[in-house]
Design brief:
It is built from 8 helices and 3 strands. It is α+β, with helices and mostly antiparallel strands. The chain folds into 2 domains: about 55 residues; about 70 residues, Type II secretion system, protein E, N-terminal domain (GMP Synthetase, Chain A, domain 3, 2-Layer Sandwich), CATH 3.30.300.160. A hairpin with a 2-residue loop joins strand 1 and strand 2. Helix 2 packs across helix 3 and helix 3 runs antiparallel to helix 4. The termini are far apart. About 25% of the residues are buried.
């Protein structure tokens, strides 16, 4: 079954009018944005209402991170380089059937399967995405990693490339 488009869903729910939807579609086309971003930018919806609708559309939970603190052990499951590059933050390690996992991860785009796969591979756990605003995720990253340009080395963080290797035979001078 095809997924209902976000704009149509918001129209059907009475959150926006037909004129607002048409205006947002024109804004979306002009500025190459997503329809939800256009609706918020034009002031037709609050970001919270739009994200709640998007979460329903995608069948994922919506969370507001606020000042939530994440335990260091959970943060350490994902290399900081991935957290910063993919704009996501691990929130907790759930228990299922007496086993650890999945890893709960807050993202602004739960449909970005490449990012979720990268996190799952790095952490060694399946991942369950929850939707959060991009600004909320970025604030959480800044709050937890304030002052850290790069994370401490972890299993999957490779050192910088030292450059080409020159082989020297015994008795040969450089």
């Amino acid at each position: 079954m095809a997924r209902v488009r976000l704009g149509q869903m918001l129209l059907d729910e009475g959150c926006i009018s037909e004129i607002q939807l048409k205006s947002a579609v024109a804004h979306q086309d002009r500025w190459n944005t997503r329809i939800g971003e256009a609706l918020v930018a034009l002031g037709y919806l609050s970001e919270r209402v739009m994200l709640s609708a998007l979460a329903r559309q995608l069948s994922v939970p919506f969370v507001e991170l606020g000042d939530r603190r994440v335990p260091r052990a959970v943060l350490d499951l994902v290399p900081l380089s991935i957290i910063r590059r993919r704009h996501l933050i691990p929130l907790g390690l759930l228990q299922q059937d007496h086993r650890r996992g999945p890893l709960l991860v807050a993202v602004s785009d739960p449909s970005d399967l490449t990012s979720l796969d990268e996190v799952a591979f790095a952490a060694g756990f399946p991942v369950k995405a929850v939707l959060a605003s991009q600004a909320d995720v970025d604030r959480a990253i800044d709050r937890h990693f304030e002052g850290l340009a790069v994370g401490r080395p972890r299993a999957l963080d490779l050192p910088p490339d030292p450059g080409p290797i020159t082989l020297i035979k015994r008795g040969q001078k450089n």
